[in-house]
Design a protein that fits this description.
HNH nuclease domain-containing protein, globular, two-stranded antiparallel sheet, 10% strand, alpha+beta, 158 residues
């Protein structure tokens, strides 16, 4: 993982994503939320410079809008720009089983907290990762298979 800077909310986001999403939520059915967030996917991709917020790798195919705080955890954030992260589809679906307090936010990661070990292409924590976030960082490496998962290691080698 590498540090990312938060991009400002794009023009038209409120009218195209937030307002229709909040109208839907006001109806009282938060279980099946329409994907209005997909309307912001291009802006999110540009904000992350085509890099997955979790693997920090360039995505050759378009990634997905990840809700950092899942829709199950807090439906009120489903249509908020500040809750969106750009992610590879496999990361997004793997992360869905985790609560936001179990993972590191790509906007929270500091410079040099992780490194790739060569030639194995495995990712590890460094001593620069603060003690107060190490447990969440380790959870990400293990549960999302960012450390030594076969798929991500193969992708790094490519």
């Amino acid at each position: 993982m590498i540090p990312f800077e938060r991009a400002p909310e794009p023009a038209g986001f409120d009218a195209n994503v937030r307002q229709p999403g909040h109208r839907w939520l006001a109806r009282g059915d938060a279980r099946s939320t329409p994907g209005y967030w997909r309307r912001a996917a291009r802006d999110l991709r540009a904000a992350f410079k085509d890099l997955c917020g979790y693997t920090a790798m360039w995505l050759s195919a378009p990634g997905t809008v990840d809700h950092f705080v899942s829709r199950d955890e807090d439906p009120s954030l489903a249509y908020e720009w500040t809750n969106f992260r750009y992610a590879a589809a496999w990361i997004n679906s793997s992360k869905s089983a985790l609560r936001s307090d179990q993972v590191l936010d790509p906007f929270e990661v500091g410079d040099g907290w992780f490194e790739i070990i060569l030639p194995s292409c495995q990712m590890v924590l460094t001593d620069r990762c603060p003690p107060e976030v190490r447990d969440r960082a380790q959870t990400m490496l293990k549960r999302l298979k960012l450390g030594d998962g076969e798929s991500v290691v193969s992708y790094r080698r490519e």
